[in-house]
Design a protein that fits this description.
Elements: H1 2-11, H2 23-36, H3 40-63, H4 75-100
């Protein structure tokens, strides 16, 4: 019975394909996956899930765009600050990646 449930679950999953990935991007992602001890597919799925969950934040901010509840920042300024923070994290992760290559989890 568990096999049937597994098959039914995966039958509902969508498949995505990314074409024309530059060699250096593929190599960096493969190295990152190896450093994390996961497959490239698992790493990419995690990245896509994370991006999808963050996309909902834009909708949430849009609902509050015209509220005035004490903040002096506009929704656009807050969104810009959030994006800048995420870019800093990506840069930090990219810098940490070469240091992790020799390490295994």
């Amino acid at each position: 019975m568990p096999l049937r449930v597994t098959c039914m679950h995966t039958a509902c999953m969508k498949t995505m394909q990314i074409r024309h990935v530059p060699d250096e991007v593929h190599e960096a992602l493969s190295d990152w996956a190896q450093a994390e001890g996961v497959s490239l597919q698992a790493l990419l799925l995690d990245i896509v899930r994370n991006a999808a969950s963050r996309s909902r934040n834009v909708d949430l901010l849009a609902r509050f765009r015209n509220r005035h509840d004490g903040t002096e920042l506009s929704a656009e300024e807050i969104t810009d600050a959030v994006h800048a923070g995420r870019e800093r994290r990506v840069d930090e992760d990219s810098e940490a990646l070469p240091r992790q290559r020799g390490q295994r989890k």
